[in-house]
Amino acid sequence: FAGKKVSVSSPQRRFDAAKVDGRKFMRVWALGKHLFYEFGKDLTVHIHLGRLGRWREQTLKRSEEPKQPT
What we know:
Blueprint: E1 27-31, E2 34-38, E3 44-48
Antiparallel strand pairs: 1-2, 2-3
């Protein structure tokens, strides 16, 4: 999928899919149970592969690593 535009939806409305729908997917990487989907320099979607969870937005500078959940 890298380099391709993606079609994204959120049937359960747990996040605003419009923010990534139609955008070009750049890459994905993992850190433990965390997945990071990059959609260009201005947007990375963070997903934690747990049984329970929540969605939240966080603005990072490109040189920063995502904060570990507490």
